[in-house]
Design goal:
By secondary structure, this protein is α+β, with helices and mostly antiparallel strands. Helices cover 30% and strands 29% of the residues. The protein has 12 helices and 23 strands. Strands 3, 7, 8, 9, 10, 11, 12, 13 and 16 form a 9-stranded mixed sheet that branches. A 5-stranded mixed sheet has the order 20-19-21-22-23, with helices on both faces. Helix 1 crosses helix 8, helix 2 packs across helix 5 and helix 2 packs across helix 8. The two termini are 20 Å apart. Bound molecules: 5'-O-(N-(L-cysteinyl)-sulfamoyl)adenosine.
Length: 427
């Protein structure tokens, strides 16, 4: 992609309304633009990152034996009246009337819709277990939308729903999701740790939040120092339950098993939340299957969310410096930036154009800064948008067939021939 035809309106100044690094950097890099409070347009550069995050999540959900569906954003109030949540959900739910004055809502989550689908089509224990998920926009009329897309009103969520015959089966589904989450976040170069959490309006009595540790996190978490020895790569539900780590909502200082002197606290960003709530929705919505003994039993359910759009902000909180974002390769909008430092110099242009075409042929995702701008502005923009690699070509290096290769994360720069640079990048 050539910068001259692309659209990423970068800003030099820090926008006044942004109080955390991720919000500041997303606005400055031209990734998002606010439409109104808590509602954003994703601009091309931001959308590329969102799609990559979404795809990693999708691949790990599929690998964990889940099936993707796509539910609507708008739901009928009727289903929520059946589950009993329509009146309890309160002002966070955006309620709408259609032209026939039927009550509708913009879905804040989808337990009712998916349970109704299950109830209509799945009738036998032989079809279990089933895990159905979608990646869809949700709306919650947050009282205090803030930090950009971190706490938006409209946000993208991956929500998975599991259906099992027995509580043991449901725990196995819960365990499979814990594992999928650990793999998902590892692929994005961050560690998200599961802590015990309150279940709120989703319900149930077993729940974990996945928290990425960051000073600017909105949640406070409390944990036993022994938790630091937890190997998140081989985390099991039993192991998790044997160690104390709780979100602020659930933490009760009076009844905490860890003595106050040893208890640790940290701040985190809640990027995911998993719940086991048994038959809370299956009974009222009629999701029963025929068991092996021929009797009708309500299915055991859990739900598993990831704030897909919030993850983008959390990744920036975890990976940035003063100059800008430092994307992990797996989610970077482009793998590399190619900087032509003088677009009026014909040797430099010829050399960069040729290099650009070779990158395209090799399927390397590249943003080619071919704009007529000073080199200072190009360096600043490239560091700001945070592509993992930069190839820098000026008139003198062009004549010698050389370039500079910069690693954005380590800051390391080396001079090498264009040919060697190409081979390295292809690897
Ligand atoms: N139905 C369940 C799981 S499928 C559910 O709705 N869980 S949730 O309420 O915890 O939301 C799932 C995830 O969505 C959260 O962990 C968080 O990462 C993200 N999320 C929730 N509210 C917002 C918001 N206002 N802005 C951005 N992300 C949000």
């Amino acid at each position: 992609m050539r910068s001259s035809v692309y659209f990423y309106p970068t800003l030099k100044e820090t926008p006044q309304e942004a109080h955390v690094a991720s919000h500041r950097l997303m606005l400055r890099a031209g990734m998002i633009a606010q439409v109104t409070s808590g509602i954003y347009t994703w601009l091309p550069l931001g959308l590329r990152v969102l799609k990559k995050v979404e795809n990693i999540i999708r691949e790990e959900q599929d690998r964990a034996g889940s099936l993707e569906v796509l539910m609507p954003t708008i739901q009928p109030a009727e289903l929520w009246e059946k589950s009993g949540r329509y009146h309890d959900y309160g002002k966070e739910m955006l309620r709408i009337q259609d032209r026939h004055e039927r009550e509708m809502l913009y879905g804040p989550t989808a337990e009712e819709v998916i349970t109704d689908i299950f109830a209509r089509f799945i009738k036998s224990y032989r079809d279990l277990p089933k895990r159905l998920y979608n990646i869809q926009w949700k709306f919650r009329d947050e009282i205090r939308p803030r930090f950009g897309i971190m706490r938006g009103r409209e946000f993208l969520m991956k929500d998975n729903y599991s259906f099992d015959l027995t509580p043991e089966g449901a725990r196995a589904s819960y365990q499979a999701m814990l594992e999928a989450y650990v793999k998902t976040f590892a692929r994005m170069d961050v560690t998200a740790i599961p802590v015990r959490a309150a279940t709120g309006p989703i319900g149930g009595d077993l729940s974990h939040e996945f928290q990425i540790l960051a000073e600017t996190g909105e949640s406070e978490i409390f944990y036993d120092p022994a938790y630091e020895t937890l190997d998140v790569n081989s985390v099991t539900l039993d192991r998790l339950q044997s160690l104390y780590a709780a979100s602020d909502e659930l933490h009760d200082p009076e009844n905490c098993p860890v003595p106050l002197e040893t208890l640790k606290t940290a701040r985190g960003i809640e990027v995911g939340h998993v719940f086991y709530f048994g038959t809370k929705y299956s009974i009222p919505l009629g999701a029963y299957v025929m068991g092996p003994d021929g009797k009708q039993v309500p299915v055991e359910m859990g739900s598993y969310g990831i704030g897909v759009s919030r993850v983008v902000a959390a990744l920036i909180e975890a990976h940035h410096d003063k100059a800008g974002i430092k994307w992990p390769e797996s989610v970077a909008p482009f793998k590399m930036g190619l900087l032509n430092l003088n677009v009026k110099n014909s040797a430099c242009v010829a050399c960069c154009d040729d290099f650009y075409h070779k990158l395209l042929q090799a399927d390397v995702e590249v943003l080619y800064d071919d704009r007529d701008l000073g080199s200072g502005a190009k360096f600043a923009d490239m560091d700001l948008i945070g592509l993992p690699w930069q190839v820098i070509v000026g008139p003198r290096s062009a004549e010698a067939g050389m370039c500079e290769l910069k690693n954005r994360r380590t800051g390391e720069r080396i001079e090498l021939s264009l040919e060697d640079a190409l081979n390295r990048i292809k690897q």
